[in-house]
Protein backbone atom coordinates (compact mmCIF):
# COMPACT_ATOMS: atom_id res chain seq x y z
CA UNK A 1 0.00 0.00 0.00
CA UNK A 2 1.35 3.40 -1.05
CA UNK A 3 0.76 6.44 1.17
CA UNK A 4 1.93 9.87 0.06
CA UNK A 5 1.23 12.86 2.32
CA UNK A 6 1.24 16.37 0.81
CA UNK A 7 0.75 19.56 2.82
CA UNK A 8 0.12 23.20 1.79
CA UNK A 9 3.91 23.71 1.75
CA UNK A 10 4.01 21.29 -1.24
CA UNK A 11 1.34 23.11 -3.28
CA UNK A 12 1.89 25.81 -5.88
CA UNK A 13 -0.28 28.77 -6.83
CA UNK A 14 -0.68 29.80 -10.46
CA UNK A 15 -2.95 32.08 -12.51
CA UNK A 16 -6.13 30.74 -14.08
CA UNK A 17 -6.02 30.14 -17.82
CA UNK A 18 -8.54 32.97 -18.26
CA UNK A 19 -6.51 35.35 -16.04
CA UNK A 20 -9.46 36.11 -13.72
CA UNK A 21 -8.02 34.50 -10.57
CA UNK A 22 -5.58 31.95 -9.22
CA UNK A 23 -5.61 28.26 -8.44
CA UNK A 24 -3.57 26.30 -5.96
CA UNK A 25 -2.42 23.07 -7.55
CA UNK A 26 -2.25 20.28 -4.99
CA UNK A 27 -1.18 17.39 -7.24
CA UNK A 28 -0.74 16.80 -10.96
CA UNK A 29 -0.05 13.71 -13.05
CA UNK A 30 1.10 14.00 -16.66
CA UNK A 31 2.26 11.53 -19.28
CA UNK A 32 4.24 12.67 -22.32
CA UNK A 33 3.38 16.29 -21.52
CA UNK A 34 -0.37 15.60 -21.45
CA UNK A 35 -2.44 16.21 -18.33
CA UNK A 36 -3.99 13.04 -16.90
CA UNK A 37 -5.11 14.26 -13.46
CA UNK A 38 -5.00 17.54 -11.58
CA UNK A 39 -6.30 18.25 -8.07
CA UNK A 40 -6.53 21.91 -7.09
CA UNK A 41 -8.26 24.58 -5.01
CA UNK A 42 -9.59 27.91 -6.15
CA UNK A 43 -11.86 30.73 -5.04
CA UNK A 44 -14.80 32.02 -7.02
CA UNK A 45 -15.35 35.62 -5.91
CA UNK A 46 -17.47 37.10 -8.70
CA UNK A 47 -19.73 36.18 -11.57
CA UNK A 48 -17.81 35.34 -14.73
CA UNK A 49 -16.54 32.73 -17.17
CA UNK A 50 -14.66 29.60 -16.21
CA UNK A 51 -11.56 28.58 -18.17
CA UNK A 52 -11.98 26.11 -21.02
CA UNK A 53 -10.13 22.78 -20.78
CA UNK A 54 -10.78 20.80 -23.99
CA UNK A 55 -10.55 17.03 -23.53
CA UNK A 56 -10.84 17.33 -19.73
CA UNK A 57 -13.63 16.16 -17.42
CA UNK A 58 -14.14 18.41 -14.40
CA UNK A 59 -15.55 17.89 -10.94
CA UNK A 60 -15.99 20.73 -8.44
CA UNK A 61 -16.93 20.69 -4.75
CA UNK A 62 -17.59 23.97 -2.91
CA UNK A 63 -15.71 23.85 0.42
CA UNK A 64 -16.79 27.14 1.96
CA UNK A 65 -19.00 30.09 1.15
CA UNK A 66 -22.52 30.14 -0.24
CA UNK A 67 -21.76 28.49 -3.58
CA UNK A 68 -22.88 29.64 -7.01
CA UNK A 69 -24.56 28.51 -10.23
CA UNK A 70 -22.69 27.22 -13.31
CA UNK A 71 -24.47 27.59 -16.62
CA UNK A 72 -23.60 27.00 -20.24
CA UNK A 73 -24.90 25.11 -23.28
CA UNK A 74 -26.66 22.06 -21.81
CA UNK A 75 -25.36 22.82 -18.29
CA UNK A 76 -27.21 24.32 -15.33
CA UNK A 77 -25.63 23.27 -12.04
CA UNK A 78 -26.12 24.59 -8.53
CA UNK A 79 -22.72 24.37 -6.84
CA UNK A 80 -23.75 24.03 -3.20
CA UNK A 81 -21.37 23.49 -0.28
CA UNK A 82 -19.97 19.95 -0.01
CA UNK A 83 -21.93 18.59 -3.00
CA UNK A 84 -19.67 17.42 -5.87
CA UNK A 85 -20.81 18.41 -9.37
CA UNK A 86 -19.37 17.16 -12.67
CA UNK A 87 -19.16 18.91 -16.04
CA UNK A 88 -17.05 18.85 -19.16
CA UNK A 89 -14.15 21.23 -19.68
CA UNK A 90 -15.04 21.59 -23.37
CA UNK A 91 -18.13 23.74 -22.79
CA UNK A 92 -18.05 27.43 -21.95
CA UNK A 93 -19.58 27.78 -18.49
CA UNK A 94 -20.18 30.91 -16.46
CA UNK A 95 -20.45 31.29 -12.69
CA UNK A 96 -23.40 33.39 -11.54
CA UNK A 97 -25.32 34.07 -8.34
CA UNK A 98 -22.08 34.60 -6.41
CA UNK A 99 -23.50 37.80 -4.89
CA UNK A 100 -19.87 38.94 -4.67
CA UNK A 101 -19.30 36.43 -1.86
CA UNK A 102 -16.24 34.18 -1.97
CA UNK A 103 -16.73 30.45 -2.37
CA UNK A 104 -13.65 28.21 -2.10
CA UNK A 105 -13.73 25.00 -4.07
CA UNK A 106 -11.86 21.73 -4.61
CA UNK A 107 -11.37 20.70 -8.24
CA UNK A 108 -10.67 17.38 -9.93
CA UNK A 109 -9.65 17.38 -13.60
CA UNK A 110 -9.12 14.15 -15.53
CA UNK A 111 -8.27 13.42 -19.14
CA UNK A 112 -11.33 12.32 -21.05
CA UNK A 113 -9.82 8.90 -21.89
CA UNK A 114 -9.67 7.93 -18.21
CA UNK A 115 -12.63 6.55 -16.26
CA UNK A 116 -14.48 9.43 -14.58
CA UNK A 117 -13.41 9.88 -10.96
CA UNK A 118 -15.78 9.11 -8.11
CA UNK A 119 -15.89 12.10 -5.76
CA UNK A 120 -17.61 11.75 -2.38
CA UNK A 121 -17.53 13.16 1.12
CA UNK A 122 -16.34 10.55 3.65
CA UNK A 123 -15.85 10.38 7.41
CA UNK A 124 -15.12 7.70 10.01
CA UNK A 125 -15.12 4.46 8.11
CA UNK A 126 -13.41 2.31 5.57
CA UNK A 127 -12.98 3.15 1.91
CA UNK A 128 -12.40 0.05 -0.19
CA UNK A 129 -9.58 -0.50 -2.64
CA UNK A 130 -10.04 -0.11 -6.36
CA UNK A 131 -7.56 2.34 -7.80
CA UNK A 132 -5.85 5.34 -6.30
CA UNK A 133 -7.56 7.26 -3.52
CA UNK A 134 -6.90 10.98 -3.12
CA UNK A 135 -8.13 12.19 0.27
CA UNK A 136 -8.34 15.94 0.91
CA UNK A 137 -8.79 16.72 4.62
CA UNK A 138 -11.29 19.40 5.61
CA UNK A 139 -9.91 19.30 9.15
CA UNK A 140 -7.59 17.18 11.32
CA UNK A 141 -8.19 13.44 11.03
CA UNK A 142 -6.42 10.10 10.72
CA UNK A 143 -5.94 8.11 7.52
CA UNK A 144 -4.73 4.55 8.12
CA UNK A 145 -3.49 5.67 11.55
CA UNK A 146 -1.51 8.56 10.03
CA UNK A 147 -2.33 12.05 11.39
CA UNK A 148 -3.45 14.48 8.70
CA UNK A 149 -3.93 18.23 9.05
CA UNK A 150 -6.53 20.50 7.52
CA UNK A 151 -5.95 21.05 3.77
CA UNK A 152 -3.52 18.09 3.57
CA UNK A 153 -3.78 15.63 0.68
CA UNK A 154 -3.19 11.91 1.04
CA UNK A 155 -2.64 9.70 -2.01
CA UNK A 156 -2.95 5.99 -1.37
CA UNK A 157 -3.55 2.73 -3.19
CA UNK A 158 -5.62 0.15 -1.40
CA UNK A 159 -8.19 0.60 1.35
CA UNK A 160 -8.23 3.60 3.68
CA UNK A 161 -9.49 3.77 7.26
CA UNK A 162 -10.72 7.23 8.28
CA UNK A 163 -11.09 8.45 11.86
CA UNK A 164 -11.82 11.88 13.31
CA UNK A 165 -14.37 14.63 13.60
CA UNK A 166 -13.72 16.10 10.15
CA UNK A 167 -14.65 14.69 6.75
CA UNK A 168 -12.41 14.29 3.72
CA UNK A 169 -13.18 14.70 0.07
CA UNK A 170 -12.47 11.23 -1.30
CA UNK A 171 -11.55 10.95 -4.96
CA UNK A 172 -11.27 7.47 -6.44
CA UNK A 173 -9.10 7.54 -9.58
CA UNK A 174 -8.39 4.81 -12.12
CA UNK A 175 -4.93 5.69 -13.39
CA UNK A 176 -3.26 4.08 -16.42
Automatic annotation (TrEMBL):
Under the heading PANTHER family, the entry gives: PROTEIN VES
**Superkingdom of the source?**
Bacteria
Please identify the protein, giving its name as recorded: HutD family protein
Q: Which residues form a coiled coil?
A: none
The lineage, from the top, is: Bacteria, Pseudomonadati, Pseudomonadota, Alphaproteobacteria, Rhodobacterales
Amino acid sequence: MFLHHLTPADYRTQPWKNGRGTTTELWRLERDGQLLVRLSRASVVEDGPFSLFPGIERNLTVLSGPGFRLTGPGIDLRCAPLVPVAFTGDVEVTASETNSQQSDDFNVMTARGLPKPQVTLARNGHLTAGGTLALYALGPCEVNGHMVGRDDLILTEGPARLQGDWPVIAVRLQLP
